[in-house]
Design brief:
This protein has about 260 residues and is mainly alpha-helical. Helices cover about 70% and strands about 0% of the residues. The chain has 13 helices and no strands. The longest helix has 21 residues. The radius of gyration is 26 Å and the shape is elongated.
Length: about 260
Amino acid sequence: DPTDADNLYDLGVVYSELRQLSKALATLEQLVELAPDHVHGLSALGVAEINAGNLLIAEEWLRKATRIDPKNQWALRNLGACLMKQDRYQDASRILSRCLAEAPKDIAAMVGLGEAQEALGDSSTADGLYRMAIQIGGPEHIVDIAKERRTRIAENRMRENPNVRLDVVEYIKTALGHFRAMQPKQIQDLGIEIGLLGTKGLSINDPTKTYKVKSIDGEFTGLQLVSIMYAAFQQFAPGQNVGVDFSKEYQFAADQLSNG
């Protein structure tokens, strides 16, 4: 029925999802002519125009939708995406912040806002938004984007900190992964065992794997064991002076591991 707004909306969305954009645009334009205040129709038309590469036209439709319904989550999120595609990061940040105010668990808007903040030079805020999106969970492809962005931020931070030892980061990250399967007492015993071994001397500059401990299988270099010991003490006595300061490496490792 060409006079049924809801049918036109459903049909237009299907065409848009199938990337039959000319049919989608024609159907959704027919809809908004029939029902000029149909917020979802205006939003869907904006999305179709984005997919067709007509960003300024898309922006007009999406802004009209947000004028009619200033709290519409879908219209706000897609307007933010449209602005991001135009590299208008400050405008996008404002719109996506409005979206999250209305829908605090919208991880697509959350990741989009993170990308806007990154583009504006605020990687710390961006990283927090990505972390929150991962914790909330949702569509796998969006969570994967958040994880990839967090990894990139961590890698950039390491490059900006030349004093960070990447080998120690990897040793600590591996240790933290193992700790997930261990009881707190086992982690404590491991840290103390390595600490006692260290009183007899651990050569952290020798790359040869010559050391063994009772708590875990395998042979280790001195640096590996000291890294594991530092990570272990952070679990049960984080303020304890263990003779080395791997705090930066520990933080980088913990951040990377939290990305899953």
